[in-house]
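Quick one before lunch.
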Amino acid sequence: MSVTTDVSVAVAALSQGKLCAIPTETVYGLAANALDPAAVARVFEAKERPADHPLIVHVASAKDVAQWITNLPQWAMTLIEQVWPGPLTIVGSRTALASDAVTGGQDTVAVRVPSHPIAQKVLNEVKANGVLGLVAPSANRFGHVSPTSSRHVVADLGQYLDTHQDLILEGGECQVGLESTIVLAVDEFPVILRPGAITSDDILRITGIAVAESLSAVPRVSGALDSHYSPIAKVVLITDPAQIDQTNAGFLALVEIDTPSGVHRLAAPRNLEEYAHQLYSALRSADDLSLETIYVIPPSGTGLAQAINDRLQRAAY
Ligand code: TXA
Ligand code: MG
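Model of the threonylcarbamoyladenylate complex:
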């Protein structure tokens, strides 16, 4: 495995059935040709991901969605037109192109058009080589924190990728820092399966349809396992810095909350966007410092705060 900045090298590798971690605006994904069963199998192996956890197919443009999903409701078409390319994944009824290996045997498939310019370039160029979509689960070992820089990918997957064949494409820090919002689009109303930067308010504003609140009886989402997005350090959610009774612990909160004495400030985001952007590298840096505990004051509010809280609760579980 080597790290490259050369998109054409990444495109050649992916077109030949090799794995390549690619940057997206949300997190880095471990990409492979979605139509190459051997390559898809190697993605599961490298991540140590259970086979029944489905993958997201990444495509170059909204026009490509019809190859993978059929019978999309009108509200979903409207949403796609407004938001793609962007941090939104649509789960819909699969076409014959979506294999069981990709969907985990479900009759739905997840599709997304990322906006990161490098991801866009990769997807357009592999498409020119006949690759109709790339699976790209977050490029971390199963259950761990998603990577928001190439360094994180090396740390997590470096030893599990093929030394001579697989690649990591350098693309800087991911801007959003949280995985895409996943929306189930098989019914007359949207259901959010995983909250993200595209919020239920955004969906209501764009489609005019309220988002269903219930998360029960929806298909399995691996990020929805109770424990997920976890660093090695124990994550403890608090409301007041006075609750910290340890030194040599990490601390994460908005900048206006002062650092208690004796603890390591892991990040001091000024707003929700920065909180999301810095969250995963803050959690990882605690492990780099061998800290036992990370105390976190979660942000309050709706929208992006809900997505941040979702990840924090799973990290703390
Ligand atoms: O932002 C993202 O979505 C990133 C970047 C790399 O694109 N990818 C990502 O992939 O987060 P992954 O595999 O770590 O998470 C994909 C989620 C999983 O929780 C999976 O269960 C869910 O999507 N998923 C995939 N197909 C599904 C389906 N047919 N029904 C329900 N959930 C599905
Ligand atoms: Mg993941």
